[in-house]
Design goal:
By secondary structure, this protein is an all-alpha fold. It has one domain. It is built from 8 helices and no strands. Helix 1 runs antiparallel to helix 2.
Length: 199
């Protein structure tokens, strides 16, 4: 599955970029570093993604799956707080770091960060692993995507990346167009971080 040297090198590069964003520069320059990291990953991977003409069904699947993911996370947060109330501090610190605050943060989120994550992890990594886009390639790409979130320092983000990453990988596999996972990711992030934050 991961025999391609270019894929392995690209995953290492992505980890280094995200390590810098979340760990080395997080206190002062998270948004600048994260935006630059995803922009570089877009440049590296944009030719690998599959695109089709956007249909009404694509929009419906993208928006619907983004809303459904948000509802799953909302319910999950309620359960988590009942079982592990001490984790609220971890969730709060994560929100403080990744929630957009300035106008350019929103622009970056919509135009660079969300498309960049989908183009790289689904379009490039998942696409290069297995041309048949089997379930095993979706799972491996999901685990690799989640592993790159370890630098945020919270177990909750890794769990979130596993669930959301598998969903977006599955959507990309089924629809064969990058439009659907990007739209789903966009709706999910806007609900989670802008319109209906969980905190």
């Amino acid at each position: 599955m991961l025999r391609n040297r270019k894929v392995i090198i690209s995953i290492i590069i992505a980890h280094l970029l995200l390590f810098s964003s979340f760990f080395l520069l997080s206190d002062l320059f998270f948004w600048q570093a994260f935006t630059l990291s995803l922009f570089l990953l877009i440049l590296y991977s944009y030719r690998s993604a599959s695109w089709k003409k956007v249909t009404y069904n694509h929009v419906l699947i993208g928006v619907g799956s983004g809303v459904l993911l948000y509802l799953i996370f909302y319910i999950g947060k309620q359960i988590m707080l009942m079982l592990f109330p001490d984790m609220i501090a971890s969730l709060q610190s994560l929100y403080n770091l990744i929630s957009p605050k300035e106008t350019w943060h929103y622009i970056s989120l919509i135009l660079i960060i969300i498309p960049g994550e989908e183009l790289f992890w689904r379009g490039f990594v998942q696409g290069k692993m297995d041309k048949t886009q089997s379930t095993s390639s979706i799972l491996l790409a999901t685990v690799l995507y989640a592993s790159a979130h370890i630098y945020a320092g919270t177990f909750l983000l890794i769990v979130a990346a596993l669930l959301a990453g598998f969903t977006w990988g599955y959507l990309y596999n089924r629809t064969r167009t990058m439009t659907v996972p990007i739209l789903s990711h966009l709706v999910f992030d806007l609900m989670l971080l802008v319109f209906f934050p969980l905190l």
